């Protein structure tokens, strides 16, 4: 069985269907990308994995059905989430924001704090600075850093490049690669930035209007006429 196995996942907001019979799998140690336009259901999918929606179907993580667990229990199982909105505590300092993420791994908080500072040196220089005063790129780094403070086995990252300059996107990509290759963290990324996802991921799912339309390796999807015409304009 895959590390994460989602089968026939459905989510409704009132009568509107946000996800329709979505199935996907993630092997341990993989980076997978979920691409698609705004409103496709990408954030809803990650929210569902973390127990933040009322959903139907199965979400199995390391053999355990997450639908039976609270969000707190899911985090304790080893899943961390860096949401698109970042959800930082605006008037708290950088270090305090990071330490809030350590509630599941208090014994390792100093070690993990140093790991985050090694990954994002700018955050160590901003330790006492209020989160609201950071640049967009620094806030994204802080969101990722806070998620890493919980010692995750799987990291969910929602739209990490939205609104960021190309150089910052490149830095974020390198950090995610290092976390995967050196720390063995399994990573699930959602992205509208198709190039970013194709470059970073080992497997890609195309999600449109709440349905998986296509899946495959990045080199395979790059050759698909639909992908070329819809997302690259060629």
CATH architecture descriptor name of the domain at 1-76 and 188-234: 3-Layer(aba) Sandwich
Spell the H/E element sequence.
EEEHEEHEHHHHEHEHEEHH
Quick one: CATH class of the domain at 1-76 and 188-234?
A: Alpha Beta
- Strand tally, please? 10
CATH overall fold name of the domain at 1-76 and 188-234: Rossmann fold
Strand order of the largest sheet: 6-7-8-3-9-10
Biggest sheet record: 6 strands, mixed
Give a written overview of the molecule.
The protein has 234 residues and is α/β, with parallel strands linked by helices. The chain is 37% helix and 26% strand. It is built from 10 helices and 10 strands. The protein has a 6-stranded mixed sheet with strand order 6-7-8-3-9-10, with helices on both faces. Strands 2-1-4-5 form a 4-stranded antiparallel sheet, with helices on one face. A hairpin with a 2-residue loop joins strand 4 and strand 5 (64-65). The model has no long low-confidence stretch (mean pLDDT 91).
Keywords summarizing the entry:
234 residues, alpha/beta, Rossmann fold, six-stranded mixed beta sheet, 10 helices
